[in-house]
Design a protein that fits this description.
Elements: E1 4-6, E2 9-11, H1 13-73, E3 88-92, E4 98-101, E5 113-116, E6 119-124, E7 135-141, H2 145-211, H3 219-247, E8 255-259, H4 260-276, E9 281-286, E10 291-295, H5 296-312, E11 319-325, E12 328-333, H6 363-373, E13 377-383, E14 387-393
Parallel strand pairs: 9-11
Antiparallel strand pairs: 1-2, 3-4, 3-7, 5-6, 6-7, 8-10, 11-12, 12-14, 13-14
Helix pairs in contact: 1-2, 2-3, 3-4, 3-5, 4-5, 5-6
Length: 394
């Protein structure tokens, strides 16, 4: 199957992309939650530190106010504003104009206790206006011991929480995916059982039709036989596609040198009746004989899907040209074509860009899988309402 493994479950590429997006969103939300709680914890730790420093700053503030009071009472022009080696200070008047400061840093009066630029500030308002002082600020440098400790705690608990949330996400994802896994398993079993039951009757019908001498039949009966032949071959082709999808990994490859010219002629003859039903002409253009070392069943399946799509998406009365050159063969049709923006996605399973045509949309996904197994290069060129050309090279 064209599937990718995720959490021990096989999923097609589109489902895997959905799971990756879900995990990315879950991880993003987890990181956001951790960051929000880390910020809240950091602010709480900062407030706790400020409250612990507050008593010391209040003590310094009282000392400064007492010194101001003494200077106010025993004022002498030779005296200067009080200062201390233990803290920096600043004095503002009633109009919030700076009277005195022991450094040039910008100060704020809108908060009582705050941390800014690594310095803790306490704003105090004296009971009396000593020497015109209305606001007194005392400042001490933060030793940042609490900051380093808080960082360590945030990193440690953040990492533990992230891993815990990943485990929870993994468990939830497996629980949510169980119905999908069961459905895929049930579908695979159903397809395997169905294809197994189809094998004998389809093979019998095709074999018996091929043994009929059509030259001895009247025209009316010949048309009926041809319709049966077309229907049987269509069902046979679908059966082989489903067989490859369900058992592709289990089918042992019997690689040998395949004559591509001979294979093309065989498969074109097989699909002639299907093409004639839509009045489509299949032309072969063998420019050079070439060989490819592959499993005959798989390379036949690849070519069959290219021819089947060329018929299915062609117009009535259209044309198909199958070209064989050195180390390359191509199938070109005159059909509806593919939009340029859809070409990159057309090889995905269940991709059909024309809902009016039948099919399951698995043809080119099988082509892609076989090409990948044998390192074949698939090149698709197409123009809407003109046609499509698919080249396989090695």
């Amino acid at each position: 199957m064209l599937a990718s493994k995720s959490l021990g479950i096989d999923f097609p590429r589109s489902e895997k992309q959905t799971l990756v997006r879900f995990l990315a969103l879950y991880i993003l939300l987890t990181v956001i939650i951790i960051l929000v709680f880390s910020f809240i914890y950091f602010e709480l730790q900062k407030d706790l530190m400020l409250q612990e420093k507050k008593s010391t700053l209040q003590k310094y503030s009282k000392e400064l106010i007492e010194d101001l009071k003494q200077l106010h009472v025993y004022f002498d022009k030779t005296q200067i504003y009080p200062r201390s080696d233990k803290f920096d200070s600043a004095i503002f008047d009633n109009e919030k104009k700076l009277i005195f400061s022991t450094n040039d840093t910008k100060l704020r009066l809108d908060k009582i206790l705050y941390l800014e630029s690594g310095v803790i500030h306490l704003v105090n308002i004296p009971e009396s206006y000593y020497l015109g002082a209305r606001y007194i600020i005392v400042k001490v440098k933060d030793d940042e011991v609490w900051l380093e400790q808080t960082k360590k705690e945030i990193i440690t608990f953040g990492a533990i929480t992230f891993l815990f949330m990943l485990v929870i996400g993994y468990i939830l994802l497996r629980l949510f995916l169980k119905p999908m896994r069961d459905a895929i398993t049930l579908l695979d079993e159903f397809i395997k059982d169905t294809t197994h039951e189809l094998n004998t009757p389809v093979s019998t019908i095709v074999a018996n039709i091929e043994m009929i001498d059509k030259s001895s039949l009247d025209e009316k009966l010949l048309k009926k036989i041809n319709r049966i032949d077309i229907g049987a071959k269509t069902v046979s082709n679908i059966y082989q596609d489903l067989t490859y999808l369900t058992l592709g990994n289990e089918i042992a490859s019997n690689n040998e040198d395949i004559d591509i010219e001979q294979l093309v002629l065989e498969r074109v003859e097989y699909f002639t009746s299907l093409a004639l039903a839509k009045k489509i002409k299949i032309c072969t253009n063998i420019r050079e004989r070439t060989f490819l070392h592959v499993d005959k069943f798989k390379i036949s399946k690849l070519l069959d899907n290219l021819l089947s799509n060329a018929i299915k998406y062609n117009k009535v009365g259209g044309e198909i040209i199958v070209t064989v050159e050195s180390r390359v063969f191509s199938v070109e049709d005159s059909g509806i074509g593919i939009a340029e923006e859809d070409i990159s996605e057309i090889q995905g399973r269940y991709k059909r860009f024309n809902k009016s045509s039948g099919g399951f949309g698995i043809g080119l996904s099988i082509v892609s899988a076989i090409a990948k197994e044998y390192n074949l290069k698939i090149d698709i060129t197409s123009k809407e309402r003109v046609g499509t050309k698919v080249s396989v090279s090695w």
